[in-house]
Specification:
single chain, 90 residues, mainly alpha, Arc Repressor Mutant, subunit A, two-stranded antiparallel sheet, globular
């Protein structure tokens, strides 16, 4: 189970939750994330970095310079699940 501070970290950032929710089904490149979430490129890039730093997402092809695919880590999947449960309960 993810620590409460990681769940809180995700819930405090609307963009973090959007990006993680978008990655729940399949790996995606940042351009897909921009389109699906409606976020600016710079916001997606910053959010990806933040989530990678917390080990919630990972790059599946780090050597590729142009089209990097990102996916949720097992920790990220569990954190997203818990965060959605919390956000649905008032």
């Amino acid at each position: 189970m993810p620590k409460k501070n990681v769940i809180s970290y995700v819930l405090r950032g609307e963009n973090r939750l959007k990006v993680m929710d978008s990655l729940k089904t399949e790996p995606k490149v940042s351009a897909q994330l921009e389109k699906e979430t409606g976020m600016y490129k710079s916001h997606v890039s910053r959010t990806i970095k933040e989530l990678k730093d917390q080990s919630l997402i990972q790059c599946t092809n780090p050597k590729d310079r142009t089209f990097k695919f990102y996916k949720l880590t097992p920790k990220g999947k569990e954190t997203l699940k818990k965060a959605k449960e919390i956000s649905k309960n008032p």
